[in-house]
Amino acid sequence: MKHILKILGLLAALSAVWAGLLETSLIPYNYVWLLPIYLIVSLGCYGLLMVGVGLMVFPTCPQEATLLQKDILEAKDFLMRKGIDVGAA
Amino acid sequence: MEVLDTKPERTKSRSKYSIIIPTYNERLNIALVTYLIFKHLSDVDFEIIVVDDGSPDGTQDVVKQLQKVYGEDRILLRPRPSKLGLGTAYRHGLKHASGDFVVIMDADLSHHPKYLPGFIRKQTETGASIVTGTRYVRGGGVHGWNLMRKLTSRGANVLAQTLLWPGVSDLTGSFRLYRKSVLEDVINSCFSKGYVFQMEMIVRASRKGYHIEEVPITFVDRVYGSSKLGGSEIVEYLKGLVYLLLTT
């Protein structure tokens, strides 16, 4: 139950700050009410952004597939010379 | 005395490495991967432990032939009668491991043995307890995934990073090197199955404060045989996330 407590603690701290803002009315009341919604929306945006950026810069390695094919041929050649029957898979 | 040794490639420490490879119907792949391991680790003291779950395709016969070529002390066949799952396969292999370090990798060639020297070098340089391969950094990468697979993978990763703060970039990758005592400790506190198990291992290790380093690896999707990712895996993954959120 450790990590969930950390996250709950963080949420509690945020709620405390929010409650504080509600009480002290440092910022107009109407705005303060909307802050949690902003938080949720910005979290969602952050997630989407991270997925989007992650997709755009997704590292691919087409050359590795060709290299691997070469390695496989080399290995098969060796195995054949050693008389190991791996069958046609 | 070791200061005089100028070649960094020659592993200065005489550590022994045990490479555990779980197999199920990997007749061809196990032979290929064995050849590649011996090719890339020519000057390292290591043993390969094949944990075969009673493959009907004759995987064990191929391993026995490989033993004749490379020696029974280099390739250990430690089969089990039936398909019993990944987590227990590692436990089973670990019981027979005599190395100071244990490498865990897949037999299907998605983990290329050419990265093993890099894992070992990273460990020697940093003294890390765990070196884990990551596909998501410069120098790493994936081949053979369609857009949907990439999207799922990225989404899963962002979700896990946001909720768990694990401190490693690739949670579900399973190409890793562990100090043997660390693997024993971590594996005994893990209870999930399938590939959530891989995630649980690294998250628990991170929570226990073990020193974890990453090396970039490339991941070429299964060359022979079919990939095992289905729709229900997403549900499994989400359940795994919640489980880790509550228990670690």
UniProtKB/TrEMBL annotation, chain A:
Its main location: endoplasmic reticulum. The chain crosses the membrane at residues 35-58. One of its GO terms (cellular component) is dolichol-phosphate-mannose synthase complex. Residues 1-19 form the signal peptide. It comes from the Eukaryota. The keyword Membrane applies. It is found in: Endoplasmic reticulum membrane. Component of the dolichol-phosphate mannose (DPM) synthase complex. This is Dolichol-phosphate mannosyltransferase subunit 3.
TrEMBL record, chain B:
Signal peptide: none annotated. Residues 18-186 form the Glycosyltransferase 2-like domain. GO terms for molecular function: dolichyl-phosphate beta-D-mannosyltransferase activity. This is Dolichol-phosphate mannosyltransferase subunit 1. Keywords: Endoplasmic reticulum, Glycosyltransferase, Transferase. Gene3D superfamilies: Spore Coat Polysaccharide Biosynthesis Protein SpsA, Chain A (3.90.550.10). InterPro entries: DPM1-like, Glyco_trans_2-like, Nucleotide-diphossugar_trans. It is found in: Endoplasmic reticulum. GO terms for cellular component: endoplasmic reticulum membrane. Pathway: Protein modification; protein glycosylation. It catalyses: a di-trans,poly-cis-dolichyl phosphate + GDP-alpha-D-mannose = a di-trans,poly-cis-dolichyl beta-D-mannosyl phosphate + GDP. Component of the dolichol-phosphate mannose (DPM) synthase complex. Transfers mannose from GDP-mannose to dolichol monophosphate to form dolichol phosphate mannose (Dol-P-Man) which is the mannosyl donor in pathways leading to N-glycosylation, glycosyl phosphatidylinositol membrane anchoring, and O-mannosylation of proteins. Belongs to the glycosyltransferase 2 family. GO terms for biological process: dolichol-linked oligosaccharide biosynthetic process; GPI anchor biosynthetic process; protein O-linked glycosylation via mannose. PANTHER family: DOLICHOL-PHOSPHATE MANNOSYLTRANSFERASE SUBUNIT 1. Its EC number is 2.4.1.83. It holds the Pfam family Glycos_transf_2.
